[in-house]
Amino acid sequence: MTEAEWILTFDDGPLAADMVDATGLSDAELLTPLDQILETLATHPEGPIKAVFFVRGPAYPWPTPPPDSAFQKGIDRILDEGHFIGLHAYRHDPELWWNWLTRAPEITEDLDRCRAYFEPMVGADITVFRPPYGQGGIPAFDWAQENNVKYHLMDVDTEDWKHHPDGLNLLWENDPVGHLDYMLHFLPSKMWFHTLSPGANDILFHVSERTAGFLDRLIERVSEATRLLGHEPKYVVPSEYVRIS
Ligand SMILES: [Zn+2]
Description:
The protein is α/β, with parallel strands linked by helices. It has one domain (2-242): Glycoside hydrolase/deacetylase (TIM Barrel), CATH 3.20.20.370. 44% of the residues lie in helices and 16% in strands. It contains 9 helices and 8 strands. The chain has helices at residues 27-30, 32-43, 68-80, 94-97, 104-122, 137-146, 176-196, 209-228, 239-242; strands at 2-11, 52-56, 84-89, 128-129, 150-151, 156-157, 201-206, 231-235. Strands 1, 2, 3, 6, 7 and 8 form a 6-stranded parallel sheet that branches. The two termini are 31 Å apart.
């Protein structure tokens, strides 16, 4: 059986994307979903699995910015477990990222700020980037090129974001079971094309309370679907994915 390689990627961490208000929460509480996700990746029967975390800064959507200490601890935990950090955004504002045609200077500024915030926490250059919502357009792409940062949109979208407060619809906001059923149902049809294309393909998840609760089943489903499609799943992070050679 030939192998199909998957890169598991998590956007929006280290804090949870479905956390509406961080006010008054301790760092430990803020990082509970991330901890659960790291635990699942380390202990899953298909693992241990290394992943890429495209991180977002402390600005939008929170009314009170969560403390920097929570971000630093989250970054430390991701790196301690042997995962990779990518840039996502400092201000995860749909109004900015969807309107890239007219907001190029602000997008450039946001990405510079995101890098300046996270690189000292990582203690090294961050060499991979994914813009929010698959948006950011030419300004985001140009920024990546000019900064020698690898730019990736996703290959397979699990749609685990469909209840996020900044999503364009809240399809599954009040129905986590329906949300999981939907994802499990459509994953194989989204994956089949990518099992045919060469090299590793990435699968998009988010750091969220909901995904933390589902992740073991979702990974199991990715493996099941891969085997149904006639391949053996392999979970990887190729060096060419995270840096420009
Ligand atoms: Zn995002």
